[in-house]
Each structure stands twice: as structure tokens, then as C-alpha cells.
Amino acid sequence: MSAEGPAGGPAGELRVPPATRGFTGRRRERTEELPPGQYRTDDFPVLSAGPTPRVDTGEWRFTITTETGSSHHWDWNGLHRLPRTEVVTDLHCVTRWSKFGTRWSGHPLDAFFASVSTSAEHALVTCYGGYTTNLPVADLLGGRAWIATGYDGEPLAPVHGGPARLLVPHLYLWKSAKWVRSLTLSTAEQLGFWEGVGYHAHGDPWREQRYAL
Ligand SMILES: Nc1nc2c(c(=O)[nH]1)N[C@H]1C(S)=C(S)[C@@H](COP(=O)(O)O)O[C@H]1N2
Ligand SMILES: [Mo]
Question: What's the 95 CA to ligand 2 centre distance in angstroms?
């Protein structure tokens, strides 16, 4: 297992987002290639650090809080007023399985950020049930991250994060927080659940960013 170098400043890793066809329509993310150290599976393993929380859509809220403390909220109806995209993408878990061609329905994070004023570089994601993960804000933008509510033509199952999870398939799957509840944006990096015990702050599978050193 090769550990990556220090969890470098995410600002240094900002990439130009790929061309996006906007907020609607089908987005094909999949490459059907294996990142280094991964193997292919056709199963859809469930990996959860705790029990599956049951979140009623009537109670569900998603909140973005900026570095200045201003909060933006979406309830289930508000979520569904945002543009929705069908996404076909490969998934890469740091435990080394990859699954090709998964089909999701989700709302691009760009649509949420359209009403948020921020210059923060870091996001801490928190979930119903208490799980957290962190990633650079840049990785949430550019049509590369969604709040997903559908999988394979059905509502997203609770074990896979239903009613709504973050989907950031260009990063290792631990960043795709299930039962997503909020984003806290900040100028200083705050580490999440796995990042706090040594996993990488960015987690790009193509660069095999499994561990911070
Ligand atoms: N809330 C929450 N989200 C989570 C996790 C978790 O334990 N809790 N596990 C992460 C990890 S390590 C992986 S690999 C994926 C697994 O998603 P799946 O169970 O839908 O395959 O969810 C990620 N999101
Ligand atoms: Mo994982």
C-alpha cells in the first residue's frame, strides 16, 4: 500500500472543472477504467460506520452554513425545485472495490451554491447519524457532485443513504456521505470521521490518495 505524501493544501489541487452541459440532462461520468490498486465488483456493498438512520422526507433538511455564519436551508420540496440530473458513473471505494456504470438521479451542488456567497475553500459534510467527511469546496462544484435521491430508477434505499446522500464519484466513496444533513464551509480545514484517523483530505482515486501521511 503506498501512502501518499502530506495531505497537501487543497488549494494547490484545484482543477479546472470539465465542461458541463448545465444542470439538466444526462451526465456520463464513467470511464470503466480501474484506478491503481482497485478491483472490479458487480455487487453494491454496503459500508456504514453505524446503524442506518431512518430519516423521514417530511423531516429532512439540508443546510449550507458559510464561513460568515449565514445559513441556507432546503427541505424536501425545496430540494425538488432544483434542477435534477441523471448521472451514470463509476464508484471507487478505498477498500479497493470499484463498481462501473452506476445510475443515479441527483441535484447538482452547483444549484445549491448558486444562492450561497462564499470564498471558503473547505467543506465539512455532516450526516444524520453523526458521520462526517471533509473535502475541498472546489470538488463540490463544476457538475461533479450531487445530492442524490435516486438509484437505478428507484428512490435511494436507506442502506445506501436514502432519502438523500452526497455523491462525489471522482473521489473515493467515503466522501459520498450517506443521509447527508449539512455542509459547513470554512477557511480552515476541519477533518471528518475517516480523515481524522489518517485518511486523505482530498481522496482522488486516480492519484491513489488513500492516506494522509
Ligand atoms: N453517513 C455515512 N456515509 C457514508 C459512510 C458512513 O459510514 N456513514 N461510509 C462511507 C464509505 S466508507 C463508503 S465506501 C460509502 C459506501 O456507500 P454504500 O454503502 O452505498 O456502498 O459510503 C460512505 N458514506
Ligand atoms: Mo469506504
Answer: 6
What's the pLDDT tens digit per position in 46-55?
999 999 999 9
d(Cα 190, Cα 119) in Å, to the nearest integer? 16
Q: Which amino acid is at 69?
A: G
Domains detected in the chain: 59-207 (3.90.420.10)
The lowest-confidence range among 28-32, 81-85, 165-169, 205-209 is 28-32
Ligand 1, from 46, 98, 160, 173: best to mutate by most atoms within 8 Å of Cβ?
Answer: 173
Q: Which residue has the cell 481522496?
A: 203
> Is residue 176 within 6 Å of ligand 1 at its C-beta?
yes
